[in-house]
Amino acid sequence: MAANADRFRDAGCEILIVTQASPPLLRLFLNGNPQPFPVVGDPDRVAYRAFGLERTSWLTFLKPSVIWGYLRLMLRGVWVKTPNAGEDVRQLGGDFVLDSDGKVVWRFTSADPTARPSVGELLRVLEASPRSE
Questions:
Q1: Which of 23, 39, 77, 90 could bridge 17 with an S-S bond, Cβ 3.0-4.6 Å?
Q2: Reported pTM
Q3: Tell me, what DSSP letter sits at residue 113?
Q4: Exposure string (b/e) for 104-123, b if CB count within 10 Å is 16 or more?
């Protein structure tokens, strides 16, 4: 997302990243890895529940598509990190587009830990979303 921040801004989008990290861990991460948009910690996963994001089973990690998804990430140089204390590796994520009134106009809920929409797909959604004046 960070590499494409300008593309999202040009599309009239503001990004907010929500992570499970505790505030001290998040602060430590952001000190070494500044981001071009706000990142907030939700260690109690309140926002995850509010947006209807579910947890997966341990068996999900054995699915060929998930194993392949992690291998693709590693081939691109993205290494799977060890979870920090309190982080739930079974918590699934999601991506949401909200209008200026805070109404969800598009949602992508991950079916497995490696499922994410592409930058292109998100930009297409933004271009097709109605804009409030």
A1: 39
A2: 0.78
A3: T
A4: eebebebeebbeeeeeeebb
Q: How many domains does the chain have?
A: 1
H-helix or E-strand containing 94?
A: strand 94-98
CA–CA distance, 36 with 123 (Å, rounded to integer): 17
**CATH code, domain with 78:** 3.40.30
Q: Are 20 and 91 in contact, with CB atoms under 8 Å apart?
A: yes
| Structure token pair of residue 108 | 């992508």
Residue 130 lies in a domain: no
Domain that holds residue 86: 2-125
Query: Which amino acid belongs to residue 11?
Result: A
The tokens 């494409």 sit on which residue?
4
Digit-by-digit pLDDT tens for the chain (133 residues) are 788 888 888 888 889 999 999 999 999 999 999 999 999 999 999 999 999 999 999 888 888 988 888 898 889 888 777 887 888 989 999 999 988 888 898 999 999 888 889 999 999 988 887 665 4
